[in-house]
Design brief:
Length: 463
């Protein structure tokens, strides 16, 4: 096990395990301050975030899709060649209808084209991943090196520019939200250029990934004129890649994302423009900071303000945004009907007994909140200003949405005024018991795998 920095307190085993799970599930829930981790531990966390990111894990699905092809479906077109060879040798009887032969050849060529298209799609996803990380980390590194205020912050904290740049870009693109500073992005709230560099990373790696992926394939199709790219664009459903959507769906998704951001931005500016968290910032810095905050509310969890200072109305809005899946979009009824007609048979065929008794995801979240309130019931009585149902709900929904937003903990809000309490930049869960932390670990796993349970609970009818 790698060790933290020499001058830092060694975290407990449950905290180390919690942080590892948080990085692997790209949740960024923290029980300890980030600056206690050594460079080796930061590298390990970077690998966990990279592997746990949605774009990286989706490449495994593409590899599995390629492995489903049989040997005779390879791009070499062996099956087509063998049929043509049999025709030349006269081994195919003339009694067999020519239409059957043509059907076999067409079917074989289609499978061969699909295999090639799947391989091209895997290359596009890999290139997308590499280009975003290389360009992103280079721009962040360049910005920090050229801007004295940002460079001074890292020098004061003893963080290398290259380590900060790559760690932050990997975390941002994976929508994890970890930053190698205790205060997250609060210390950089005046560096509007850095915030503007990170906003596209957030959108490219999550909510707008399908739209950007399709746009990339469309550009490659226009540049190369290869039939494989055209096949990918025209056969999104047949490709078996969940992130590949039709042009209409991508347009509706992008419009929905912009709509959510716009609504949050207007409300956040109207409620928090003159708040404590925005104090000392110029109007331009407030504009960029507000945009950065609302973009992060969906899934990333990086923050330039202390959430405990935000108004309750904005917190409730953030809870709703954190609960929504990344590809939530407004789809007109006519498109929904078409999707149901195409996928209805497969869904009906896949019914199981356990699917008929499963609860909805919202029901499971309510159960998790109840369990945590039971494990932390003593603290709810002794420290009600810190330990209240709203703060616990925000922590649970944030873990479920793999966001990482936390209300934190403040010694000033303690009613008892006990001595020995020290404020830290660790998340609110850092003050929970071991049982509460373990339950939140389950919530993070449940949230990371929520795509498999989004349609659960349909057997329960409220009437």
């Amino acid at each position: 096990m790698s060790k933290p920095k020499p001058d830092s307190l060694r975290p407990t085993n449950i905290d180390v395990f919690f942080t590892s799970v948080s990085a692997a599930t790209v949740s960024s829930m923290s029980t300890v301050e980030m600056e206690i981790f050594s460079d080796t531990q930061l590298i390990i966390m970077t690998v966990l975030m990279l592997v746990g990111g949605e774009v990286f894990t989706s490449m495994l699905g593409l590899q599995m899709a390629r492995s489903r092809f049989k040997v005779h479906d390879s791009p070499d077109g062996d099956s087509v060649n063998s049929i043509s060879h049999e025709i030349e040798l006269g081994t195919i009887t003339h009694e067999k209808p020519s239409t059957d032969l043509e059907t076999n050849i067409n079917s074989s060529s289609t499978k061969s084209l699909k295999y090639k298209a799947t391989r091209y799609l895997a290359y596009v996803v890999l290139g997308y991943l590499l280009v975003v990380h290389i360009i992103g980390s280079s721009l962040v590194s360049m910005y920090v090196s050229l801007v004295p205020s940002a460079r001074k912050i890292l020098r004061t904290k003893g963080i290398e520019i290259q380590t900060f740049s790559f760690f932050t870009v990997v975390s941002t693109f994976a929508n994890c939200g970890f930053v190698p500073t205790n205060e997250n992005m609060i210390v950089f709230k005046e560096n509007s250029g850095l915030l503007l560099l990170l906003i596209p990373q957030i959108l490219l790696g999550n909510t707008l990934y399908p739209a950007c992926l399709r746009a990339s394939i469309w550009v490659l199709d226009k540049m190369t004129k290869k039939v494989e790219f055209k096949y990918i664009l025209e056969n999104c459903r047949e490709m078996g890649y969940g992130h590949l959507r039709s042009g209409v769906c991508c347009a509706l998704l992008a419009a929905t994302v912009v709509g959510f951001i716009s609504v949050q931005f207007v409300l956040f500016c109207s409620m928090e423009w003159d708040s404590e968290g925005m104090a000392g910032l110029s109007p331009y810095q407030k504009f960029v900071g507000s945009l950065f905050e609302v973009v992060n509310s969906r899934h990333s969890g990086e923050s330039i303000v202390d959430l405990s200072t935000i108004s309750s109305a904005i917190l409730v809005l953030f809870v709703v945004m954190m609960y929504l899946p990344p590809y939530t979009s407004f789809i007109p009824t006519k498109y929904q009907k078409e999707g149901k007609e195409k996928g209805g048979k497969s869904e009906a065929a896949g019914k199981r007994i356990w699917e008929c008794v499963m609860l909805s995801n919202l029901s499971y979240l309510a159960i998790f909140i109840i369990l945590i309130c039971i494990t932390e019931r003593q603290k709810l009585k002794e420290d009600p200003l810190n330990f209240n149902v709203l703060n616990i709900t925000i922590e649970v929904i944030s873990a479920y949405g793999n966001v990482g937003f936390s209300m934190g903990y403040s010694c000033k809000r303690r009613l008892s005024g006990e001595m020995g309490c020290t404020d830290t930049w660790a998340g609110f869960v850092g003050r929970w018991s071991g049982s509460g932390k373990f339950i939140l670990i389950l919530v993070m796993f449940f949230g990371r795998l929520k795509s498999f349970t989004l349609k659960s609970g349909k057997a329960w009818k409220l009437s």
